[in-house]
Model the fold of this input.
Amino acid sequence: MDAEQTSPEVREALEELQLYLSDSIPPLVAAGSIELLLRQPPDVMASAIQGWTGAQYRRKEATSVAVSDYLFHAVRKVHLMGEYRLVPAETLASFLGELKRAVVAYCPEEDRELLGENLKRLDEAAASTSAAPVSALFRQIGGERVSSAGGPAPAAASIASGELALRRFSTLLQRMEAEVARAGAGRGKPLPETLAVAARRSETAREIEEYLARLRGMGLEVGTADVFQALAKTLPEWTPPASGAQWPAPGNPSHAVEAMRRMVVEAEDPVEGARRFQELVRAAIDRFNEGSLPQAASAIDLALQLLGEKKVDAGTVEVARRKGGEALDAEKLRRFAENESTHAPLKKILTFFTALSPQGLLEDLAREPKRERRRLLLALLEVHGEPARAAAFEALSAPFRELGPEQWYFRRNLLYLLRRIPRPPEAPLEDEIEVTVRHARIDLPPPLVKEAVANLGQLRHEKAEVALAQLLVDLEAAARDKSADSTADPREVQGLLDRVVSALARVGTPGARRAVLEHSLSKDPKLGDTMARAAELGTQDLSDDPDFVNEVLGVVKANAPVKVLGLVLHQNENSLLRAIGILSGTPSPAVRSAFEEIASRFPEKEIGKAAARSLAGFRKAGPEAAAAPPAPSLSGDLEVFGLPALMQSLADSGASGSLTVSDPKGALVGTIRLTGGKLRSCRAGHLRGREAYFQLLERPTPGTFQFIRSERPPESGDATATGTLYDVLPLTMEAMRRHDELREAAVLVPDDVLLKATDVPPVPHPGEKDGMLIKGLWTRVKGGATARQCESEIEADSYRIRRILAHWVEQGSLKPAQA
Done:
């Protein structure tokens, strides 16, 4: 057919055919053009194949390839469209017969018989051969020879990555068709695993669209939102450690992240890209609400990257950031905020949503009347850390005259944040003291004053001491004031006195201690139990302030019972008990001597017993007790922290000891031994060494862990120890890679699916060099063992076993027994 007689649609389809033959576009993209050409006379396609062959053969580097090989390659590529179920099978079958005869006519006479024979065997070869780049053709059987142009022929073709992806998708598609048939036309739903495999293996967003079109053609309701949901479920299920210094860089993202990025960035227009961005954010929210914080954080991290790179319309981003946070589950927010190990990924999510940023949370906090909700907002602000503290300090610095209930509650919460979030070293301490002191006034609401007092008690500074001492004086005056015009509530005053004296004791300066002592020695009953308020000093070693210790010892001696003419005269025994309590944390020689005398003279009295208890405490805190401290241990929940992050944290700290991992029922899953932060040995089921370590991370367990520190070397009988110490990070990185690929292989070869051998001989996986493993695995699977059974019997991690089985399924050597 002449070009002038060919319609524009057919000419465009012929151009796309030639691109497909040269592997410039994948099969999915060319499927529409191939289907159009199937409705044309076979000579149209045959003529195009002849033209393509001539163009290939005229290339200097291709003259060593026989013309018949190019012709065979072209027909084989067209044949693959049926194998991948991209065009109607019956239409293709009738078309191919005519196409083969037409193509043979274009072959040099000396090769026609060979080409004809190989074209007849195409159906037999379909299960074991797939398309390859032109530089590595589908070669004919018997065609490996020196071409007429001289020189050796190229080696046999390897499978191109795009063809391998399509073969894997086609296998999964067959399973889905069976599911649809059972569910009824139009009622089936695509398997999320199938969507994830298709998206991860696609090289362009257009390929993903072609996959979706194939699924819609089966009557399935599927869109890009389903793909984002499916991909989000395959994201890493662990969080990076808090240090993050050596954690995998963003430049090496997972296949799922890359697929989601392509779907947004390569959208056909900005409107579609904006819609997909919102679907990405929605998938992140759903993963969060279902309890998978690491996966949600990975998806939001991608959204933040796209935002920084300005890949999405600014208005769309603003809508997603402003509205999306409302959909996050409040209970999940609370649970993750209460666990410090999850703060890093949670902070990433909070930062993305406007309402959950420090400023947004503070605005919500200022107007929130419910106590439980305020507690959640404060917990989320703590997750933000320093930025939230800076915002709280700025809000507190604003001047005020009179405070209504909402205002003073808000300021009380801000003071709480300043105390809970560590102050950065560069922040001036004097400025914080000045702001806090403004809220430590007796004329302000007592709850607000109590919060300010608690903050001042943490700030060891002369100005904090002066402010607390002055507040103590004001409160003592208020407690003594019984005039009718006094507005102070006596109970509130007593409570504030308790807080202020305790805060002065925590400040710990000589001036603060004397203020506490003077208050405690007051005899005014209007001030309440003044000696009881000084009990805070009993938790401190006051030996560095001998003058103060001597003053308290003077109180002890002045109130100790004395004997006069054989009679015991009691002084103020209550004051004596309080004085003993003040010195109960100070094991100085003078204090020991005074307490020993009281304990020996009055063993049956309360003062003697109190002195004896203090002496016993001195002995327990002595150097002999500190010589052998108990070995500290660490335990927790792996569901939110993750074994990879835990291992990296232990490695960063140079820890030595034994880590045990248990499943939710408490059964032992594995044991890892570390020396100086390096892996010494590992055991997981029947696996040992590095293979066991890979297995633990490939098959994450939502159980618990316990780490027992020990500097002792492992016992000589430890069969898992290799004598070699391994760096944890490279092993963890390799295990993470295996985890991702294992999930995909497990979709193709599920745990309990029975496989049967076909007539196609098994070809070893190119990445597996252990011949005994390959032989043993083939023997077991031929004998009826499932993938799960093979993993439980063979000494290799799940990844190695499952990828070999998936490879044999893709090559056609194995297929499901029920297929």
